Amino acid sequence: MKNSFLSKLTFWKGFAIIVLIIAAYAVFVRFTNGLGAATNLKDEFPWGLWIGFDILCGVGLAAGGFTLCGIVYIFNIKSFKPIIRPAVLTAFLGYLLVIAALLIDLGRPYRIWHAIIMWNPKSVMFEVAWCVMLYTTVLALEFSPAVFEKLKWNFPLKIIKSITIPLVILGVILSTLHQSSLGSLYLIVPNKLYAFWYSSLLPVFFFLSALTIGFAMVIIESYLSSRAFNKQLELPLLIRLGQVIPILLLIQLVIKVIDFADRGVFNLLLVPRTETYLFYIEMLFAIFIPMFMLFSKKIRYSRAGLFYASLFAVLGFILNRMNVSITGMEAGSGTTYTPHWMEYFITLGIVTLGFIAFSYAVKYLNVFEKSPEAEVTESPVVTSVKQLEIQVNK
Amino acid sequence: MKKKALLIDITKCVGCQQCAIACKEQNNLPDIEETKLSATAYTVVEERGEHYVRRLCMHCNEPTCVSVCPVGAFEKTPEGAVLYDEYKCIGCRYCMMACPFQVPRYEWYSTTPRVQKCRMCIERVRDGKVPACVQACETGASQFGEYYQMLQIAHQTIKAEPDKYVNHIYGEKEVGGTSVLYISDVPFEKIGFKTNLGTVPLPEYTWKALSKIPSVVLVGGTLLYGIWWITSRRKEVIEYERKLKEQKNEEEEG
Question: What angle do CA A297, A299, A302 make, to 5 degrees?
């Protein structure tokens, strides 16, 4: 048993090393021969996998950080404190990786600082740039207590703790702006983005779906961490998050229906073309499957049920972002785009770096153990749904 | 300097490519024949059925590229030209993604890539000359002059031969109007023009969302602070009541 676990671990280690080597080669090619040598991007289709997956999905999947901070510090629901650090860590690493992807995607990354001094407040990209800079700083500060505790630096720890509330409020606002502004990026292309996805409500959809997926990501990452690092699963807390997800999904569904009615695009649902099929798959995974799964108490109260419902929601979320940024843009741009293998490997390499950084942080810092002053809500081993229910409603 | 415009009469274009050649010469671009716009071809004449359509930057009145560039690398000059500053550009390519006419081109194989497109020969125009492409046009398919004058000529040409020309000046109203105008004897959608662009300048769609940021920040900040105040106050009260109760119990027991 133990042996197979070890061999599994070395398999993933080997896999990670190979991916990183290939990704490093791809990065080398991109920086020595230009974007054209490493990507299938073209003049008619200048944004590809890196924008669509690494940036749009990366930022969205990091949403668990601000939602949990809001729950614990603004709504004062302190019972969620045990899972706040892994969520903030994921968000922080997520943003660092988004910046890494951005530096690879930008034609002249060494000029990234231009956005600080050359302003164009009419540009959504300008807003995005500032949100990335400021929110990454906020995340670093929000996660810094874990580092200060380790180093036993009590003075900076005290300062950070004293500004927690303003910091969290700032973080929630910046996240709201950032998540929605990624949707606003596409408001400028009403004639390129297919009608299922182009809507003046794009920023609203991007924000709400990020909010939802933030919770789903916290569930997934708690589930995986509990297995990888042999720690106890905070099941009652996750079940409570699992209660919120289907409600948020229902809200999105209602807004989507109203939006479709408003714009009169229901008839497009019957047009046989790729976009239609992709939209159906997206709705199935992003909304319907996780919503019905999590509305069911039986599924919600099982760890596997929670995990798979969240996983489907995340897959649906990723498909949504890919549809907005790639598949929904192809017809309107009069061209097609399939990522170059180097684009895939650089993306894969960035995700791998994220996993490695996460496991090192867990190893050396107090990520899962409760911080000293955290309220102790030790959850005893739960055996039945009844007992769980008592804990969930506590 | 008054606003200028290019007027292209598709019925007069014979596809000789003199404009494209002159453009390359003027802008010191490599002397190779190209059939599509590229980083080394700011204008080309494309064959579309039996018609020739010259493509170049439309120099929009309210340019999408100017509005989307995060570092303000694009500007709309008083002459009407839309210019790009390669020293500001960070290479995000949002201008290319957002351009409704898909004009900006990128130097994909450069390690210091630039966005490239027609500059309306701004130096020549400021010297009182016409752009190199117009100078080179031998059939009069391309004309250049003051914006309203060009618009007037376009209207007059259509009015003079209403059976020949379609009653549509492409660029008069599209995305809020452009400084390049086309007239044609066939409907524009039949020769590859995008006729679904609408008359609203695209930056307005973005501005509707961007202009809400201050209220999101103010209302959001106040709301969050308020919620925090209420929830922490409630906690204090509960804690206080619990202590009171404990004291009471102790007193009763004592």
Answer: 105
A294's enclosing H/E stretch is helix A289-295
Bridge partner residues of B65 (DSSP): none
Question: How crowded is the C-beta side of A382, counted as CA atoms within 13 Å?
Answer: 21
Query: Taking CB atoms and an 8 Å limit, are A188 and B102 in contact across chains?
Result: no
Residue A6, in any domain of the structure: no
For tokens 């073309």, the residue is A273
Interfacial B residues in 142-161 facing A (CB < 8 Å): none
> Tell me, what's the pLDDT at A371?
43
Mean pLDDT of chain A: 89
Secondary structure E strands in chain A: none
Q: For residue A235, tell me if it sits in a domain.
A: yes
**Tens of pLDDT, residues A96-137:** 999 999 999 999 999 999 999 999 999 999 999 999 999 999
Task: Confirm whether A5 is domain-assigned.
Answer: no
Give the mean pLDDT of B111-116.
95
Q: Nearest by CB to A46, which of B96, B202, B213?
A: B96
Contact yes or no for B216 and A109 at CB 8 A: no
Structure token digits, residue B224: 């969050």
Which segments of A17-71 are extended strands (E)? Answer: none
pLDDT range class, residue A28, cuts 50, 70, 90: very high
Tally of domains in chain A: 1
DSSP annotation of A372 reads T
Nearest to B64 among A74, A173, A188 (CB): A188
pTM of structure = 0.91
Range of the domain at A240: 13-393
In total, the C-beta contacts within 8 angstroms joining chain A to chain B are 166
User: What percent of chain A has a predicted confidence (pLDDT) above 90?
Assistant: 70
Instruction: Please report residues of A whose CB lies closer than 8 A to that of B109.
Output: 33-34, 36-37
Residue B230 has pLDDT above 70, yes or no: yes
- The DSSP result for chain B, as a single string, is ---EEEEEEGGG-----HHHHHHHHHTT------SS-BTTBS-EEEEETTEEEEE----BSS-HHHHH-TT--EEE-TTS-EEE-TTT-----HHHHH-TT---EE-TT-SS--EE---TTHHHHHTTPPPHHHHH-SSS-EEEEEHHHHHHHHHHHHHH-TTTS-S--BTTSGGG-BSEEEE-SS-GGGGT----S-SS-THHHHHHHHTTHHHHHHHHHHHHHHHHHHHHHHHHHHHHHHHHHHHHHHHHH-
Q: What is the CATH number of the domain that holds A374?
A: 1.20.1630.10
Compute the distance between CA of residue A231 and CA of residue A222 in angstroms, rounded to an integer.
9
Which residues does chain A have within 8 Å of residue B116's beta carbon, measured at their own beta carbons?
Answer: none
Residue A8 domain flag:
no
State residue B52's pLDDT score: 94
Give residue-wise pLDDT tens across range A207-243: 999 999 999 999 998 888 888 777 777 888 899 999 9
